[in-house]
Design goal:
The protein is built from eleven helices and eight strands. With 338 residues, the chain is α/β, with parallel strands linked by helices. Helix 2 packs across helix 11 and helix 8 packs across helix 9. The radius of gyration is 21 Å and the shape is globular.
Length: 338
């Protein structure tokens, strides 16, 4: 059996399990993809396990949104094309709230597969980095700094033919993506953002406008002509390193906790979120276990907020307050203790 068909069966099994629930529209399938290629630092392939161990499944199950099903399948040696083919074969992304716990270069596969199922989707990319170098402009040579350039139609005349990438077809236009949280952008990336008219909000823009205005403008850019599915790509290094220290490329001056939660709360409130990539949690890079735990807990908070947790409270439906069954019940010793 081929790797692609094996992974397709894995995803299909999780999807079918979720569809059997009473409320399939509120189901979430968790796919852990411990992948560490595309860059040189070890440890990011342990990110999915760290997030699961921080209580992700229980947190989502407690939201009153149905049950979260979780896969522990490892795909670290599988080609990125397998992710694309597997997602395409499901044909279920718009019926179930899917998200993928992935390393960023896998956005090549997750977004490619998602667009084949939902051709008109848009992308919100929350990150300290633009990840839009081309193979000819990259300074590091790392694939994880290049995925967006492979996905954009407007950049294809700047892309060399690379062995092993014939499966990848450009699937986004520059108007389909908005960046939030940028603060470490290479010269060539800055040129691309400016000259190809790609909407982005740096941390300076967030300071100037405020996160509410940034989200309003993001939705105006992406949804002004029609509503469409949202693919959220959220790199944990979008947060300030004081909040998320266990990550590979931390940059000072990032999102506060409140700003990060506001972003995902507002995306959830649209009702259009279709898939999430939550990436770059690296347990081997924390200076202490507490730093690792803090980063993993933050990732859980991000994902829980994507699927309905709010800072106003996320509880089961409460229809009315109870009333005493007898006149003296409210004064009984069992009911009132001072």
């Amino acid at each position: 059996m081929s790797l692609r068909s094996s992974f397709a069966r894995l995803l299909r099994k999780q999807a079918e399990s979720a569809l059997q629930l009473q409320k399939p529209a509120h189901s979430v399938a968790l796919i852990g993809a411990p992948f560490s290629r595309g860059q040189k630092r070890r440890g990011v392939d342990h990110g999915p396990a760290a997030i699961r161990n921080a209580g992700l499944t229980a947190r989502l199950s407690g939201l009153g949104k149905g049950r979260a099903t979780c896969s522990s399948g490892r795909v670290e040696k599988w080609p990125l094309a397998d992710m694309t083919g597997a997602i395409r074969s499901l044909g279920l992304l718009h019926d179930i709230g899917f998200f993928y716990v992935l390393f960023f270069s896998l956005a090549l596969g997750s977004i490619s597969g998602h667009t084949r199922q939902c051709p008109h989707l848009c992308v919100i990319w929350v990150d300290a980095h633009a990840d839009i170098n081309t193979p000819l402009t990259t300074q590091s040579g790392n694939l994880h700094g290049q995925p967006v350039s492979f996905l954009l139609r407007e950049l294809q005349d700047k892309m060399p033919l690379l062995p092993g990438f014939s499966w990848l077809k450009p699937c986004l236009s520059t108007s389909d993506i908005v960046y939030i949280g940028l603060r470490d952008v290479d010269p060539a990336e800055h040129y691309i953002l400016k000259n190809y008219d790609i909407q982005y909000y740096s941390m300076r823009d967030i300071d100037r406008l405020g996160i509410q205005k940034v989200m309003e403008r993001t939705f105006e850019q992406l949804m002004s002509r029609r509503q469409r599915p949202i693919h959220l790509s959220f790199d944990i290094d979008a947060f300030d390193p004081s909040l998320a220290p266990a990550t590979g490329t931390p940059v000072l001056g990032g999102l506060t906790y409140r700003e990060g939660m506001y972003i995902t709360e507002e995306i959830h409130n649209t009702g259009l979120l279709s898939a999430v990539d939550l990436v770059e949690v690296n347990p081997l890079l924390g200076a202490s276990q507490e730093e690792v735990n803090a980063t993993a807990r933050l990732a859980v908070d991000v994902l829980a907020t994507c699927f309905g947790h709010t800072r106003e409270g996320a509880h089961a439906v409460f229809d009315e307050l109870p009333t005493p069954n007898s006149p003296d019940e409210s004064d009984s010793e069992e009911q009132v203790r001072i």
